[in-house]
């Protein structure tokens, strides 16, 4: 019997009862979370948006409550985790877009906005955003906030499947049996929630003390910590006159782009944790690099040196953390600046954070692999050279997975870019827009707008979902043997 036949015979499809129960429980958690924007709408006297939200939650409760009581096995398999991961974002966006339709958005724009929110992307087709109610503006940022928390919890849960280098670095204590994905994730969820809430409260307090208006402080803090990038202004941070407040908002984004378990380990180990964490140092180096490139690329402009530096700092940190706040017209930037931002968005932030992109750790793995090949050429053929990264051994499956995800990421970008080129969009701007969607950044050259062709809006929606579930879960979702058992 061939290996292929054996793998087909042993392949186990997902159990529908398990999927139904856990998706329903996630739905109940989302219902509780959405009571917060309902309360905000009520306090602001926005009765229409409040009623739209309550009606949606009532229907969702009627569906999720009975389904959450379905009897199903307590254990959960790897492919079931990945399918739940993929479906949870899609279903959350599908239910979240209904109140947006009641706010006057078209069906496709409402779904686009909801997907951009729960995936913490920040791309928006809306204009004159200030004309919408405070409840609507808060709901968008709040969706990004709890979407970011879900991303971190799910991502760390997936890493516990194999106890690789990433899982060892993200562990906050003993991760126990690597097969107990739910147990490990539950053990870490409370700590993650505590850290996430503490960072959020700190961010809101920081912005209020800096002089930001309450609605601006809360919404930008929520979008910043989640690296989502939704702003309550059409021109994003450019509408805020005080540069100090702009910088504080982007500082919140930097806090969100750092792995959440790092804060726990920092409290446990002190300042020495900085010397152990290669991702933090790499994030600093990459941020300085993109800021420097943006500063020098804008050297021919008439702006004074200090203003150029301010723009470079805000935009560079926003791109590297995949947040999407902007204080300049991105579409008006020169080609060199756009290419610098594209590279920055592609890399993204740390694993275990709310940031998107291919993640810094995977870039470091690729660079270490290149270094290994170069070193190997100078050694005897029989010499054994183990692959290590930051004092941790790199297993073959970790390298294989990193390279696979990077390849799929780039392939998705190229396929999506081709569709925009066929539609006649300028090549560099189209590439920028697609990379922004796939890396869940949200910076835009102006292509994403209400008048964008519906089929291209769908392309960006798919890109945002794929970028957030990191492609692997989507591939598992599409794999036929995930759903049916073929053969014996």
TrEMBL record:
Keywords: Cell membrane, Ion transport, Membrane, Transmembrane, Transmembrane helix, Transport. Belongs to the TrkH potassium transport family. The chain crosses the membrane at residues 22-43, 49-69, 81-102, 142-160, 193-213, 243-264, 276-296, 341-367, 402-425, 458-479. GO terms for biological process: metal ion transport. Coiled coil: none annotated. InterPro entries: Cat_transpt. The lineage of its organism: Bacteria, Pseudomonadati, Pseudomonadota, Gammaproteobacteria, Methylococcales. The keyword Transport applies. It is a multi-pass membrane protein. Pfam families: TrkH. This is Potassium transporter TrkG. GO terms for molecular function: monoatomic cation transmembrane transporter activity. The keyword Isomerase does not apply. It is found in: Cell membrane. PANTHER family: TRK SYSTEM POTASSIUM UPTAKE PROTEIN TRKG-RELATED. One of its GO terms (cellular component) is plasma membrane.
């Amino acid at each position: 019997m061939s290996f292929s036949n054996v793998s087909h015979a042993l392949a186990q499809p997902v159990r529908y009862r398990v999927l139904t129960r856990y998706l329903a429980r996630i739905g109940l958690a989302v219902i509780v979370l959405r009571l917060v924007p309902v309360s905000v709408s009520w306090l602001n006297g926005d009765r229409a948006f409040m009623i739209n939200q309550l009606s949606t939650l009532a229907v969702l409760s009627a569906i999720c409550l009975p389904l959450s009581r379905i009897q199903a096995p307590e254990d959960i398999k790897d492919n079931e985790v990945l399918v739940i991961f993929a479906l949870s974002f899609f279903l959350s966006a599908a239910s979240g877009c209904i109140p947006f339709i009641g706010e006057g958005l078209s069906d496709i724009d409402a779904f686009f906005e909801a997907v951009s929110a729960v995936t913490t992307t920040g791309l928006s087709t809306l204009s004159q955003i200030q004309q919408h109610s405070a409840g609507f503006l808060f709901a968008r940022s709040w969706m990004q906030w709890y979407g970011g928390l879900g991303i971190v919890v799910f991502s760390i849960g997936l890493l516990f499947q194999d106890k690789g280098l990433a899982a060892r670095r993200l562990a906050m204590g003993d991760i126990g049996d690597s097969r107990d994905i739910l147990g490990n994730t539950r053990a870490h969820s409370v700590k993650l929630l505590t850290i996430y809430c503490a960072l959020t409260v700190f961010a809101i307090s920081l912005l209020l003390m800096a002089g930001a208006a309450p609605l601006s402080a809360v919404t930008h803090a929520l979008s910043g910590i989640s690296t989502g990038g939704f702003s309550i202004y059409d021109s994003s941070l450019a509408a805020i006159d005080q540069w100090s407040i702009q910088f504080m908002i982007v500082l919140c984004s930097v806090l969100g782009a750092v792995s959440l378990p790092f804060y726990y380990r920092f409290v446990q180990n002190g300042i020495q944790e900085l010397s152990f964490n290669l991702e933090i140092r790499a994030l600093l180096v990459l941020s300085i690099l993109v800021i420097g490139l943006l500063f020098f690329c804008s050297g021919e402009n008439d702006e004074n040196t200090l203003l150029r530096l301010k723009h470079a700092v805000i935009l560079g940190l926003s791109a590297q953390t995949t947040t999407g706040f902007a204080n300049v017209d991105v579409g008006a930037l020169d080609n060199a600046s756009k290419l610098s931002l594209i590279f920055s968005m592609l890399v993204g932030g740390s694993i275990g954070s709310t940031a998107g992109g291919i993640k810094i750790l995977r870039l470091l793995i690729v660079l270490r692999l290149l270094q290994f090949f170069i070193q190997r050429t100078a050694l005897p053929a029989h010499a054994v050279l183990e692959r290590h990264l930051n004092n941790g051994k790199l297993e073959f499956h970790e390298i294989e997975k990193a390279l696979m995800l990077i390849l799929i990421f780039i392939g998705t970008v190229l396929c999506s870019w081709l569709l925009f080129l066929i539609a006649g969009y300028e090549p560099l701007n189209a590439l920028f827009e697609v990379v922004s969607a796939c890396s869940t950044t949200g910076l835009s050259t102006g292509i994403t707008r209400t008048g964008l062709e519906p089929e291209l809006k769908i392309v960006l929606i798919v890109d945002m979902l794929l970028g957030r579930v990191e492609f692997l879960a989507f591939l598992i979702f599409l794999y036929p043997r995930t759903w049916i058992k073929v053969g014996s």
